Amino acid sequence: MGPFPLFSVCIKREVIMSKVAAHVEEIIQPILEDLNYELVDVEYVKEGSDYYLRIAIDKDGGVDLNDCTIASEKISEVMDKEDPIKEPYFMDVSSPGAERPLKKEKDYQNAIEQPVFISLYEPVEGDKEWLGVLKEVTETSITLEVKIKTRTKNVTLPRKKIAKARRSVML
After folding, report:
1. pTM for this structure?
2. How far apart are CA 133 and CA 98, in angstroms?
3. Residue 3 — pLDDT band, cuts 50, 70, 90?
4. Which of 108, 104, 153 is nearest to 134 (CA)?
5. pLDDT higher at 14 or 137
6. How far apart are CA 57 and CA 48, in angstroms?
């Protein structure tokens, strides 16, 4: 192995986990569409010695506990048949909440004029984390209006540098 074997193992695990999440997304998307739910996010992670499959769903007007229960039951049926995850795992179906992730183009478009939190792979203007109001979305960048002490300014962030993006609650 190379000079960073543990790093290499972690990267490989992360790639495998994201492939599992993508496969699960393909399997459950039609089920959720039939139930009139939007699939917001699928996350497959290992925390400690346990694996978790986290699925966030939404619909117009939001989802409640009953919606999550119905979706969970239908998803469990197909997951048992398809069996895309070999190790034991805990499944959690929930609302994306107020700090909903921004993953798809539609998510970004719906967040225009809303507060968002952006985490970057590398700094822009010296910072890797930005909190502001999403003003513009293009194919290659997003523009935030950020408040710095007593003034506001627009910051343009390249989309290829975005590690994570989510809606935010600003007080």
Report:
1. 0.77
2. 15
3. low
4. 108
5. 137
6. 25
Read out DSSP for 45-81? EEETTEEEEEEEEE-TT---HHHHHHHHHHHHHHHHH
Instruction: Please give the Cα distance from 88 to 43 (Å, whole number).
Output: 15
Helix, strand or coil, per DSSP, at residue 137: strand
Strand-by-strand arrangement of the 162-167 sheet = 151-158, 141-148, 127-137, 115-124, 162-167
Q: What phi and psi, each to the nearest 5 degrees, are found at residue 20?
A: -65, -45
Residue 45: what residue type? Answer: V
Q: Mark 52-88 as b/e (b = at least 16 C-beta within 10 Å).
A: ebebbbbeeeebeeebbeebbebbeeebeeeebbeee
Burial degree of 135 (CB within 10 A; 0-12, 13-18, 19+): middle
Question: CA 56 to CA 77: how far, in whole Å?
Answer: 17
